Amino acid sequence: MKTYLLLVLGGLLNLMAVSDGRATHVRAGEITTRRISSNSLTYEITLTVYFDIRPGPNGGQGAARAQNDVSFCFGAGQQTRRVPRIDAESRNINAYTSINIYRTTYTYSGPGTYEISCTITNRNDGTRNIPSSVRTSFKLRTTIVVNADLGLNSTPVLLNPPLDSARVGQKWCHNPAAFDADGDSLAYRLYTPSGRIEETDQSPCNPVFVAGYSDPSTIGANRVNEAGTGPATLTVNPITGDVCWDAPAEVGQYNIAFIVEEWRDGVKIGEIVRDVQIIVTPSINKRPELKGPDAICVEAGTLIQQTITATDPDGNRLELTGFGGPFNKGPDNTPISLVPPPAATLTPAGLQNSPITGTFRWETNCVHVRDEPYDVVFRVIDYPSTGQTQLATLATFRIRVYAPRPQNLAARPAVDPAGRAIALSWSLYTCGNAAPPATAEMVIYRREGCATLTPDACATGLPAGSGYVEVGRVPIGQTTFTDNNRGTGLQRGVPYSYRIVVQYPRPGGGQSVVSEEACVNLPQQVPLITQVTVDTTDAVRGVVTVRWTRPLGIDPQDGAGPFQYRLFRTTGLDGTNFTPVATINTTLQPGMPDTVYTDRALNTGANAYRYRIEFYLTDPISGQLQRLDATENASSVRLAATGGMRRVQLSWQASTPWNNDNQVHRVYRSTSGPNGPFNRIAEVAVQGSNTYVFTDTGGDTYAADGVGTVTMSTDSQYCYRVETIGRYASPLPTTLLCNYSQGICVTPIDTTKPCAPVLAMDTLNCASLTDDAFCNQTTFANTVNWRTSATGTCDRNVAKYNLYYTPCAGDEPKLLTAIDAGTMTYRHENLTSMAGCYYITAVSRSGVESATSNRVCKDNCPVLKMPNVFTPNGDGKNDVFEPTRCPRFIESAELTIINRWGMNVYQVSSASSDVRLQWEGKTDRGQDLPGGLYYYQVKVKFRRLHCEAPPEVYKGWVEMLKETGGTN
């Protein structure tokens, strides 16, 4: 992508000369960091600021030199530190800009996210888009994630200094030439500059946005872009970092800011702010034209030589420079170590007559490999006549360096104790003129079937959707690998394709181009299971037949006989607990019935069964049987059936070494039972991955054995089995493999609701009860009965009833019990109270529940009576004031005794489990009270149907008689 920048050189800006002695003349700056210790969280923190030192009565040279130190805040509280400039004097990087660098170290106490900030007291005076700019501080911030797991991480460095100025009506662009030494991903976004009015460099550490800041593209009367096709804009490319103002409308001094974000593995680990000042002039000079190379990708070890051309429409002399990590130069052109040598060069240097041709040259090697591209920014600047503004143009050149492909990959069958295996080998990995990092790895991938890949020229690794899966990693110096499928063994007779890729370590990362393919088969030296079919479906007498082939790669005449098959079985499609079933000795001679076994006495109705065969040969030295190998596991077909609305949904599965996909499976139906006889009703073309479905609505689409169409009825049962068709992958035998599932029976459902029952309950007549009814009774019972509705279009095929109950009328009843059809009454026993409500529903044989019946309720008949005289004389007769015999259904109560003067003299409360509202004629403290007339109040909560009802209050009087007198 091409970008354009403008640079001011002197003269025309006297109208903007700074007049306030407090101005610092800071044009731009940023804060960068790097961790410098592997043993502690110690970071080197660098502030880089650029000063405007244009000549004139108010020039900034003095301000730049006077800024001997700057206040740093490290984001750990409000602590600040004065940090001196690293050079004794401010250093000029051209005639109009100087650079001040301040550097310190700080050790963080623990991991976390920290915001580092620095403050310089004043900005330049007269900044058009910042009110009172001379009174507003210049404040920068950088955010870092401190975490030991990030290693010696550093923030990106910005290698292109912000020296360029703009011209009215022309597009201005800037690219910071950001480079991250760790190879982290970078992203860019605009930001509002920070600073406070009248802020000192000792102010708190929290940066705030500049008050009243304006987007510079909104300032001026004629705000249009350079092409005149739309309004002026200020944008940043989030990928390349090109910051462009298209185009300034008025002369003046402006400030903008943008953020460079640092990302690793999808997580943002830091961001830095660059604050930039743009000086816009009315120059008539035309900017030079620059043509840079297009983005490229190269294999490590490639010598990159690219041509850059530039011309100036005004015929001015030109200077071509370059910025970016490969040059190993900082923004002030001083040498720094960013990229392992050799560094890139750009020739020729210095002023040249227009047109000029430059050559970018970089000898890449293995240590330059990484995921992220290298960005190189080329900049050409013109040198016009005196009084004209210098203008510059930039072009970005992206370079991706990838690792070379591994060479000479080969694969062959291997003998491995852990199972069937393939041995891989390849040439020792080399890469250009430098060795790869010691922590790089060789990543091994495998897929079934040979495959031709034609990836893009710059594509590294394996393309998505190629079918390869990673099976292992080895150090970069290793040249062999044995694949035994992580100890489970590979399949014989299946072609396996292998490829390898070099993976460079994080954080930089990077991959090689994928190797050429190595494709190999394991010889077939063991039997193949060809059938696991259910012959009989029964809970105790089920039968499964297992068939297999003789070992295709074994010659019975080679002297390794006699041979032996050992058959093992486990329960379930994916069972692993195999137990021995049968041992079959064989000489592998044709015609012998040694490759079939009928497994009996199984519960085929409830279970699928899975089988494995181990093959043994005779060791010619010891004469003992020795296990050669084992087959892949193969299961029977498991069928499931679910009744639907006058239909049946079938689904079936099998776990087999052969493939049942892309074949026609057969569906059979019977009305006689799970073992038939069956009629084939459909042939299902199946795809997908080992799960197959069919819906039977009663039709029969297979006419060869007769058409047996049925009307699906909820009163009938239908039985099914399916026959799967499968095939082993080439080059194994191509015979179709047929296997039956177990038989299964099911009844369709009807969604019509059953008739709602009519419910009744025994009644309780409180008026007819005597005072001692239910005396001392602790448990109660309610009896309900119901009848079916006589009318309505509803399903009368009832399978059961659901009875619902709640003890409180205000609550929704909950399911109490399910009652078999034919029973029309229920006694609800062991209740602590007769209060409660019921309703009932009917449930059809299809599991459909009816609407609720009518709701019936019963309430208790509570009783509480108090006497009006008692004689506490200790004779054991009527000594206590308490309720008369058999209070009923009391949940809680409280008794209060009051004397004739209205004073409470005694109080007692009671729970329902202990209804003892007793007064023995004493005070609460146990002191005897005199005889006489007393008043009582009983507040009682009864167990009632309406559980939320408030307590009831009983009031009355009682006379306490004593032999000795006194007044109360």
From TrEMBL:
Residues spanning the signal sequence: 1-17
Q: Please, which domain of life does this record's source organism belong to? A: Bacteria
Under SUPFAM superfamilies, the record lists:
Fibronectin type III
Which terms are listed as keywords in the entry? Signal
Among Gene3D superfamilies, the record links this protein to: Immunoglobulins (2.60.40.10)
Q: NCBIfam families this protein is in?
A: Bac_Flav_CTERM
What is the protein's name according to its record?
Gliding motility-associated C-terminal domain-containing protein
User: Native species of this protein?
Assistant: Larkinella bovis
Q: Upper taxonomic classification of the species?
A: Bacteria, Pseudomonadati, Bacteroidota, Cytophagia, Cytophagales
